[in-house]
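Re: Re: ligand-bound prediction request (bumping)

Still looking for help on this. To restate: I need the protein modeled with D-glutamic acid bound, output as structure tokens. Inputs repeated here so nobody has to scroll up.
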Amino acid sequence: MGKTAIHFDDRAIGVFDSGVGGLTVVKQLIKKLPHESIIYFGDTARIPYGTKSEEIVRRFSLEDSFFLMDKNVKLIVVACNTASAIAVPMLQNILDIPVIGVLEPGARAAATLSSRKRIGVIGTAATIRSNSYQKEIKAITPESQIIQQACPLFVPMVEEGWTEDDVTYLIAKRYLHILLENQVDTVILGCTHYPLLRTAIQKTLGPAIRLVDSGIETAETVKKMLHKKNISAPDNTHPKYYFYLSDMPYKFQEIAERFLERTVPHVETINFDQFLIEKGEQFWKKYQDLLTKVY
Ligand code: DGL
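Reply:
Sorry for the wait, this slipped through. Here it is.
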């Protein structure tokens, strides 16, 4: 008597990103939650999101979520920082399963870690333009000073594999000097690709500045949410991983392995336009009332 029954849920966690960068978040999820199955959707046909308008990022994020909902996932992780910065509150309002973005966990970690409350945020142009990290940090520690810098060249550089090249250091110096001038003590790596530049960024900023990897913080938040909602997978589950892409990019395995640090099995390219024609309509209808408030 008085004992709460423990329920398990072996449905997969759904993760989406604009491309393969979100595998840095998957890597952290696998580490933290080794029994959870994962279904990943990378919108490689429509990447980048980081240069697009808020309206388009919101629509793409909804459509990516519809794909995962159709796979019957129990929770959605928005691995893309751009989508997290722009679309997560809307997804949380509309969808009937928990949605976790990388923004809030990253902001919370930075607000806690920063001793002088001078925090740098780096990300895509759309993430920085949205001011979402700034708003989130200020909501936690209003006295914080936030210095933001978009670093659009970092994404193609990582995909090219130039994580420790001479050119990497030149570009990093050019982007990051403003953070040094403003004497930040903590910097959020606010983009899926930036954890791969950690060494170059740390060397450019110096050893005293603390770097926050939003993916690591997000995995912890997901763990807590599964526990809170009583939807963790049982400990004896052999997890399954499925990776769906809307296009097979050139050198996919090579790039993906760099992000995930292991080979990527069960990769399937899907015709996303076909999915949206066949199934998208049903989802738009299902959420019509809520969506009219958003659009
Ligand atoms: N995944 C994106 C992000 O984390 C980077 C790539 C893009 O621009 O789509 O913001």
